[in-house]
User: Which sequence fits this backbone?
């Protein structure tokens, strides 16, 4: 058999494995060495492929697809630095437990370490950032080796979805000539089905938990990446126990569309001034670490029984106060609890949180609603979301403002962020991956100028696939978060040089660069109006703000809440 | 002593080590965790610092500085994906033996693997792509630990320069509060001097080499990254032996300003048709692997004695035909040879190469010099270079066209490229690193649209530091090289989707985005005129070309040379 046929069969067997493992989306970057993988995958009827020129953006685009589909997504690139560009997205996928199947083409063994072009050591290239690394054998014409390639494909794809989920890496050495025979059918291999189980507790344990939690003053704290299918169950449990739920915006509970009295949205503000005064007997945390610093500081100060529920079992307890680790699927745990007798705590407990929420809300509504501040932009963004929309929130200030202000909404919509490693790289590309899910859906990205600048090349995908993303760019000419941190005390020149780091980039030109509709916003009402219109195409909405002014406004708001709390509670 | 003071002393001791090891340039990306390193390094009078928001670009900018200064350059970033963005530039530095000292800030040990924000496993983050990884201890207030930090700094920086040179990585765990006391003087440590030796051969060996090479038909093949101080010596030796020098453009021999008869520039063309007809007894190769595929194919077909001279001793012999590895400094080897009796081979040997060069040149001069083709752009670029200018050539087609056409020049100027892993990422940033060396110098970048697109964010440094780089952007709307490879045989839609991958980006907007002067070129004479004017600011010169048309023109030129060679030599 010719080299072309055996290589084609071998790669097709691998692809059959990826498909049987669950791959339905792939992001391919152009290159020569990866030719057989790209062509054969691109031609699969089962797989939707996207082509992204910049591998760094491609990695994050795949991450977005994986987030929104909750499925393994394949990444394909050529050899050399192309593969190195995936490391940021792979690191984020590893920390946020998303299944990526990374396929890097490589020179065959005889061309390695010999000065052959575009060749570097790709073995274990991503080190500890992937769950598994496989160096594939060279293609061979034998039934056994086709089966081997198939097995590597299906096994790696499955492993990426086994808990804890995460990225896997297959390095594929390929010999020239690289063009496959794209008319060959896939070779026949012995196919494998996979059923992936979840972690479940015994009835004895959940009995004991329902006893331990009954008649106690407890709180539920829910961080990012909470299992969406468990939200209703958690609210049911919280209502039975009379416990408040302090839910991060990325837990998607505040925007689940169920206005339960137990959801307390303004903890990020009141917990700044009410730490010792709120002392639960029991704390139960779900999801990843919450964004809110006051919440995390409060958790670290508590001495009650602290249960951490993790389906991925990662022991993410930065508070060091955890007393019990519960390695369990959330749906399973909460369903079991609902079948037990859960006894509520005294009414006053939940009332305390409701009073505090009311107090914060009153201070919020006193703010000037006509001034186009960063928090007002955030508010208009969530107020104008409609049913089933998607919102991606960038790191640094956008997620923090959203955490502070987001109320419990009537409208149900989804909020996403990159909270694995919290980078400001690849944000736009991740949001575009979400938008690719469904062109009828309204997808928004709330982002600052530094993060938007960092992933300028990512916008090529918005243009190429006309992805209907609305980018709300809050341009305060640099890194706004540093005005909220201790670095602000530095001499101005040092602060501006090293931290504020204005890029001076004009984003109107960025929009034009990609033929994307652009609007500059000058009033709250204009922002309302523009966001109330849906768009089926990508568009850029830029709002210019002042870093220092906004930092001051946030401080003033906190000061007002502090006074109100001192007046009503701490006197 | 306060945490602030001991952290400041500890980091200052580390920085003293970097300086004593030879660091004079640093590229810093903004971030919070890296605050003490950034501030203290930024304030060092001995070190020039550059601030680059995008860490991927920052890595390549540092690579450019390291290339042009031949010195270790420090990179500083915060924790998380920021650090992951360095991998492409580190991979290139590793393959091209450039000393980078990578300093990544990290959370302290107690916050790792706990869900603390922006935290991932940074130990051995760059795996095999760095020469050395050091996890620094946490700062402590003790003379011993200051000495330890100093030693790690000076040792790592020194190791990056010991042969084979390459990048090193120091991971620095830092506890809050992060603001250093920038008034503290550096602590007193025991300082170390380092003298780094070179690899030298014994006189017996060089005696034997001069015997082996005398009276033989030999060729010198010189690849990229050749030691510039050895050029004159190599030309002297070649003239004594009567051997041709086949020198890659990146060996900087064709542009050394010494028009020796031994330098044969057009091998990339004539070796396509004259392989078996040119059979040297001795081949001596210096530098990294040459770009020219015909040259490499010819080397693989030869059966003569094949000497590979490597100062970095990497055994880069993709031809598999090497018979002798010479691990030696080039200057030392060539100086020793010049002191021996070197006997020239017969005159006809060099004459053969000169006749072939003449034949190729005649065909070149027959081409239409008014048509704005990609090769004509390349020609105008080198024809208008002036003494001591710098030219950075992108990978893919620009370096190949330059290799084919570049004659032996009267003018001396330097040519650089990223030929370690040959990526099309980070090209602009590397060129900007060169331009930062000297603002009086004329620095040019010859680049295609895909590579230019890939590093769009890199241009922020051109704006910020007003680096006088002239970017000659050859825009053929996609990956031109694939029209020269076997992929061109694919059906048009598949070819366009997966390989040509037009981004459709308008670079005029990219230029405006950064306030960079922009000119679009429509004729050869206009290009001549624009390039003949020097610029002290960054500028963008865009030339639109047609991919297919240019691929055809290259093929036609080769066809004409082939006919001429068949007529004169192979009949």
Assistant:
């Amino acid at each position: 058999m010719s080299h072309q046929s055996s290589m084609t069969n071998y790669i097709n067997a691998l692809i059959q494995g990826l498909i049987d493992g669950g791959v339905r989306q792939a992001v391919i970057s152009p290159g020569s060495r990866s030719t057989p993988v790209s062509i054969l995958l691109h031609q699969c009827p089962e797989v939707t492929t996207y082509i992204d020129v910049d591998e760094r953006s491609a990695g994050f685009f795949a991450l977005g697809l994986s987030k929104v589909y909750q499925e393994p997504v394949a990444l394909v690139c050529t050899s050399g630095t192309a593969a190195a560009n995936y490391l940021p997205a792979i690191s984020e996928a590893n920390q946020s437990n998303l299944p990526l199947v990374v396929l890097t083409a490589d020179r065959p063994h005889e061309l390695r370490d010999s000065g052959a072009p575009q060749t570097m050591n790709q073995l274990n290239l991503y080190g500890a950032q992937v769950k598994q690394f496989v160096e594939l054998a060279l293609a061979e014409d034998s039934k056994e080796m086709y089966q081997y390639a198939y097995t590597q494909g299906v096994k790696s794809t499955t492993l990426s979805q086994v808990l804890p989920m995460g990225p896997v890496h297959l390095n594929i050495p390929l010999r020239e000539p690289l063009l496959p025979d794209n008319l060959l059918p896939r070779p026949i291999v012995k196919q494998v089905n996979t059923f992936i189980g979840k972690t479940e507790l015994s009835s004895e344990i959940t009995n004991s938990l329902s006893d331990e939690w009954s008649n106690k003053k407890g709180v539920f704290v829910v961080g990012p990446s909470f299992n969406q299918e468990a939200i209703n169950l958690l609210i049911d449990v919280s209502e039975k126990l009379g416990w408040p739920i302090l839910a991060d915006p990325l837990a998607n509970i505040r925007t689940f569309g169920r206005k339960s009295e137990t959801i307390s949205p303004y903890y990020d503000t009141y917990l700044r001034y009410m730490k010792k005064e709120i002392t639960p007997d029991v704390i139960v945390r779900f999801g990843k670490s919450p964004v809110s610093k006051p919440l995390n500081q409060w958790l670290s100060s508590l001495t009650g029984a602290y249960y951490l529920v993790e389906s991925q079992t990662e022991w993410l307890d930065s508070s060091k106060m955890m007393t019990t680790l519960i390695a369990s699927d959330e749906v399973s745990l909460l369903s079991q609890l609902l079948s037990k007798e859960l006894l509520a705590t005294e009414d006053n407990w939940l009332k305390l949180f409701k009073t505090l929420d009311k107090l914060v809300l009153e201070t919020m509504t006193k703010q000037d609603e006509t001034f186009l501040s960063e928090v007002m932009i955030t508010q208009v963004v969530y107020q104008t979301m409609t049913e089933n929309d998607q919102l991606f929130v960038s790191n640094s200030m956008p997620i923090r403002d959203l955490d502070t202000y987001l109320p419990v909404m009537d409208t149900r919509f989804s909020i996403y962020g990159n909270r694995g490693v919290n980078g400001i790289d690849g944000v736009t590309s991740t949001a575009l991956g979400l938008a690719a899910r469904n062109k009828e859906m309204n997808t928004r990205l709330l982002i600052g100028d530094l993060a938007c600048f960092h992933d300028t090349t990512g916008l090529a995908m918005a243009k190429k696939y006309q992805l209907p993303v609305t980018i709300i760019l809050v341009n305060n000419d640099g890194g706004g978060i540093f005005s909220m941190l201790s670095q602000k005390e530095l001499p101005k020149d040092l602060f501006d040089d090293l931290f504020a780091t204005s890029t001076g980039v004009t984003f109107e030109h960025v929009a034009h660069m990609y033929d994307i509709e652009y609007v500059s916003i000058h009033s709250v009402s204009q922002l309302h109006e523009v966001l109330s219109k849906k768009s089926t195409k990508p568009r850029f909405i830029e709002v210019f703000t002042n870093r220092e002014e906004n930092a001051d406004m946030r401080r003033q708001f906190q000061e007002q809440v502090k006074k109100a709390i001192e007046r009503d509670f701490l006197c």
